[in-house]
Amino acid sequence: MNSFNPQELITRAFIRLRQKGFNLGVGELLIAEEAVEGGFGENPQELAETLKILWCHSPSEQSQFDPIWESLLVTPKMTKSDRGDSAKSKSGDDYQQESEIENPSPLSSTPNIEPENKPESELASLPIQAPPTAMENEDNSALQAYYPITHRSMAYSWRYLRRLVADGPVDILDWEETIKQVTKQGFYLAPVYRRRKKNHAHLLLLLDQNGSMTPCHGFNRDLVETACNQSSLQPEKINVFYFHNVPAENVYKDLYLTEPTPFQEILTTCDNETSVLIVSDAGAARGYRTLERIRATTRFLLKLKRYTSLIAWLNPIPKERWIGSSAEIIANLVPMFQMDKYGLSNAIDIIRGQSYHAFI
C-alpha cells in the first residue's frame, strides 16, 4: 500500500475477521479506533500487534490473524501511473476502439451490431475497471459489544463489598425484641426498633491508564461507574486514582493524568479496613519482564501493606499470558486475578477480608 490509513485498515480487518468467524462486535471496533487515536498503530506492524491484543482471544485466532492481515496489506490497487502505463502499451486502434466503447457518440441512437465472423482477439475482455458496488452483509445478526465481564456482572459483584455498621436512624422494626418485651412484661405497649445499618466499606481504586492499558479504558470506565453508581458503597467512601505502569510518588485524580496527588497523602486516609483494588496488566500485554518495573511495584506494595492487607490485583490479560512477563513475578507478591466475572468476584472476596473460591 502506498499510503498507510489505520482507520481504513481497522474497518477492513474488522469485516474480514467477522467473516472468518471471529467474535467481534461494536465494542471491539470502537476500542481499536480509540487505541489508534491514543498513539497505538503508527505503522502497520504496530497496528497489527494492537489488534491482536484486542481481538484475538486464543492462539488459534492469533494464527489466523497473521495471514488475513498480510492479505489486507498486499491487496492491489490500480494507481494513476498504472493506468497510464496500461494505456501507453495499447496500440492506437485498440485505444480508439476502447474510447468509442466507453464514450459512445451521442448522435448514434442504435447500438452497433457486431459481425458474426469477428476475430476472437477483438472479442477479448477490455481492461475496464467495473464501478464499485456495495457489498451485502449476509449476516443479519446485530453487532454486540463483547467484554470478558459484563456491565451487569460488575454491578452484581460490587454489592458483596460491604462492611455494615448499625449507626443509621432507629427505624427498623425488631420483631424478636418486641416479642421478648411482650413476653417479659405480659402485655404489649410499643414496638421495639433498631438502628438501620450502613455500609462503611472504604474502597480505593487504582487504575493503570494509557500505554498498554489503552484497549482496556472502556472496562476501567465501567468498573468505576458501577462502583460509584450501582453498588451499596457510600460515595464519600470511594476514592478513584489513576497511574501509568506503576503508582510512584504521585497518582492522578483524572484519567488524563493531569491532576497529580502525592501517594503518601492518599495513604493517610487508609486504615486496616480499607479495601484496595489495583487494575493493571503488570507488563503482561507486551510480554516484557522489566526488572525496574518489578522493583518499583514491590516498593509500592510494601508501602501500601503497612496500612492495609486488603489488597487485590485485577489483570485484564489472560493468565496464560502472564508467563515470562513482570506479571508472573508480581502475582507472587499480591493476589492477582484475570479480568472476568470469576476474577472480579475473587478479588472482591480478598478486599473484603474473605477467602476466595478458585473456579476451575
Which residues sit in consecutive blocks of at least 5 with pLDDT less than 50?
A: 76-116, 118-146
Q: What structural class is derived from the secondary structure elements?
A: alpha/beta
Shape: elongated
Give a quick account of the main beta sheet: strands, pairing sense, barrel closure.
Answer: 5 strands, parallel
* Name given to the CATH homologous superfamily of the domain at 200-351: von Willebrand factor, type A domain
Q: How is this structure best described in words?
A:
The chain is α/β, with parallel strands linked by helices and 360 residues long. Among the domains are: 6-73; 170-198, no CATH class; 200-351, von Willebrand factor, type A domain (Rossmann fold), CATH 3.40.50. It contains 13 helices and 9 strands. β7 (274-279), α11 and β8 (311-315) form a beta-alpha-beta unit. α1 runs antiparallel to α2, α2 (26-37) runs antiparallel to α3 (44-55) and α3 (44-55) runs antiparallel to α4 (59-73). The longest helix is centred in the N-terminal third of the chain and has 15 residues, at 59-73.
Give the SSE layout.
Layout: H1 6-19, H2 26-37, H3 44-55, H4 59-73, H5 80-88, H6 92-102, H7 151-158, E1 164-173, H8 175-185, E2 193-199, E3 202-208, H9 217-229, E4 238-243, E5 250-252, E6 260-262, H10 263-267, E7 274-279, H11 291-305, E8 311-315, H12 326-330, E9 336-338, H13 341-351
Parallel strand pairs: 3-4, 3-7, 7-8, 8-9
Antiparallel strand pairs: 1-2, 5-6
Helix pairs in contact: 1-2, 1-4, 2-3, 3-4, 7-9, 7-13
